[in-house]
Design a protein that fits this description.
2 domains; 6-stranded antiparallel beta sheet; 244 residues; 36% helix; two-stranded antiparallel sheet; 6 helices; alpha+beta
Length: 244
């Protein structure tokens, strides 16, 4: 009986040792994959700063648009109405809880739907929401805000486009919206931060290589503006824009 007990004990130790070895190997593989993914992402970011549309020149008498970018989020700010488009026709006043008749510009941003709807202020930010937005491909929406002026500052840059360039930008923005059978944009019901904004269903999937900053950067590239090849990170849309 004593010999059998010793045999069982030795056998158990061997099994435990084998399990520990497998766990260590698994941990090393996960760590290696994580490091490889971080290095690959960093390499893409570095490559992404390479500019495209290097010959772009802001048009002195063109259509002035604005690009905003803070520590997290970037948006386009476009004139409400000109010879190319009247945004009031796409975003009727009935979509907003307050009177937006005095609006001169419309701010349009694209991003992770969960993050947009659950994070009105920084106090609302949850780690799970941020992690999901970055690491898991997720559904998206567009946030539209009617503005009666544009506050200039370190987080805002102005660019003037030709009519053709602005048409290309408008086409890009319009192609980002989901639409119903009548071709109308689809409002996310009962969701807004205030009385002058609304959310709309959009196309595309959000992840760490396709962020709100990426969306703005692609729009500027479509318009022929000089920006980085990839603008996933905050402020990267500003790299080649003229300073105020």
């Amino acid at each position: 009986m004593i010999k059998a007990s010793k045999s069982n004990s030795v056998g158990g130790s061997g099994a435990d040792s084998g399990n520990s070895g497998r766990l260590r190997n698994c941990f090393r593989r996960v760590r290696r994959l994580f490091l490889i993914s971080i290095l690959a992402y960093a390499s893409l970011i570095v490559i992404g700063v390479i500019p495209v549309n290097r010959d772009f020149v802001s048009m002195p008498d063109g259509i002035e648009i604005f690009v905003t970018s803070n520590a997290v989020h970037a948006e386009l700010i476009l004139p409400i109405e000109n010879s190319v488009i009247n945004w009031n026709e796409q975003f009727p006043k009935t979509h907003f809880r307050q009177n937006v008749s005095a609006a001169t510009h419309v701010a349009i941003g694209w991003g992770d739907k969960g993050f947009f709807l659950e994070t009105e202020t920084w106090d609302d930010l949850k780690l799970s929401t941020a992690a999901n937005a970055l690491w898991l491909p997720s559904s998206t929406c567009l946030h539209v805000t009617m503005k009666s002026g544009v506050g200039r500052g370190s987080n805002c840059r102005a660019v003037s486009l030709s009519e053709t360039q602005y048409e290309n930008l408008v086409t890009y923005v319009n192609n980002s919206f989901q639409r119903n059978e009548l071709g109308q944009v689809i409002v996310v019901e009962n969701e807004s931060y205030g009385g002058n904004d609304a959310f709309y269903e959009s196309l595309g999937t959000y992840h760490m290589l396709n962020t709100c900053n990426s969306w703005v950067g692609r729009g500027l590239r479509e318009a022929g503006v000089c920006v980085g090849w990839m603008t996933s990170l905050p402020k990267t849309v500003f790299l080649y824009l003229p300073k105020q």
